[in-house]
């Protein structure tokens, strides 16, 4: 597909995400050592994941002697999904270095409701919606591809018109589906790693914030990966089908015929417009997903108790105020 669909979007998106997350980090309130270490590692995971994901994007662009913003640059439809997998892997690896605490009094049982409120339902819906839209784009690309599976084609009463640029047809279906399945598997494994992290049973608020933040760091990549993949498919197929339709009408007219499909009853052109609109919506939702804010990390309960005890003692050590 046309590489400009993803390179014009992902470059500024990654840069914006890094700036926003950096501003959140430096502008956040000071925390105790444990909570601050957890927040610092979370920010580092987001930064490393963003850099690695963008490196995958740049490596997946076939410039054909041109830059990524030129007409000759093409990218495989699976590139955004593979970039998201890279970000998810980084997030999962950083889970291995999550700060651990030993429960006070030697208690090791987990509270039954410790994970309540950590589902991030809306990001999960974006992720699933992106998968559904990818399926729609792949089906349309397969059904409208020409010989060889790398171009789009439309026929009408013996008149055949084909696309002139990159087109995600049958030749790209298997690899794209494989990349999406890899994305689903990586998401599942990363979320299981988050669920398996030892619970901070002595501080449920801190545990909930860190656990939800970890899930969001995974689902950001999952949702944005599927949505950008869907957007790339839709914004390549839609305009291509519209262009083919216009040229088909011209070819039929040149043949001296007047029976070419015309709007608004031309279902193929209506499908092209619908896919283009859905592609734009997918890009907007992808931006929302990648900038999704994680919950504020609170001070650990032990540090809060120590601070309260210190503030209740007079400077002369004369007891409670």
UniProtKB/TrEMBL annotation:
Spans through the membrane: 6-26, 42-61, 73-94, 126-144, 171-191, 218-238, 271-292
Keyword Membrane carried by entry: yes
Superkingdom to which the source organism belongs: Bacteria
This protein's UniProt keywords: Membrane, Transmembrane, Transmembrane helix
Protein name per Swiss-Prot or TrEMBL: Uncharacterized protein
Taxonomic source organism: Terrabacter terrae
């Amino acid at each position: 597909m046309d590489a400009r669909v993803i390179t014009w979007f992902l470059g500024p998106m990654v840069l914006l995400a890094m700036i926003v997350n950096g501003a959140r980090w430096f502008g956040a309130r000071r925390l105790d050592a444990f909570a601050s270490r957890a927040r610092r590692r979370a920010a580092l995971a987001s930064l490393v994941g963003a850099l690695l994901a963008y490196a995958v994007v740049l490596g997946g662009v076939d410039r054909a002697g041109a830059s990524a913003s030129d007409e000759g640059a093409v990218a495989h439809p699976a590139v955004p999904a593979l970039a998201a997998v890279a970000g998810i892997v980084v997030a999962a690896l950083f889970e291995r270095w999550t700060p651990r605490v030993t429960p006070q009094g030697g208690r090791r049982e987990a509270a039954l409701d410790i994970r309540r409120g950590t589902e991030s339902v809306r990001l999960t819906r974006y992720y699933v919606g992106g998968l559904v839209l990818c399926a729609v784009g792949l089906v349309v690309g397969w059904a409208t591809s020409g010989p060889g599976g790398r171009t789009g084609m439309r026929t009408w009463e013996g008149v055949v018109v084909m696309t002139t640029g990159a087109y995600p047809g049958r030749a790209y279906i298997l690899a794209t589906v494989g990349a999406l399945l890899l994305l689903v598997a990586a998401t599942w494994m990363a979320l299981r790693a988050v669920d398996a992290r030892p619970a901070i049973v002595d501080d449920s608020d801190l545990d909930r914030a860190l656990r939800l933040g970890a899930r969001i760091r995974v689902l950001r990549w999952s949702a944005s990966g599927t949505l950008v993949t869907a957007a790339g498919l839709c914004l390549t197929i839609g305009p291509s089908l519209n262009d083919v339709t216009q040229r088909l009408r011209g070819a039929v007219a040149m043949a001296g015929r007047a029976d070419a499909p015309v709007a608004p009853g031309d279902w193929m052109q209506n499908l092209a417009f619908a896919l283009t609109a859905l592609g734009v919506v997918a890009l907007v939702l992808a931006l929302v997903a990648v900038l999704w804010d994680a919950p504020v990390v609170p001070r650990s309960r032990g540090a809060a108790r120590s601070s309260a005890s210190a503030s209740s003692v007079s400077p002369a050590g004369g007891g409670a105020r």
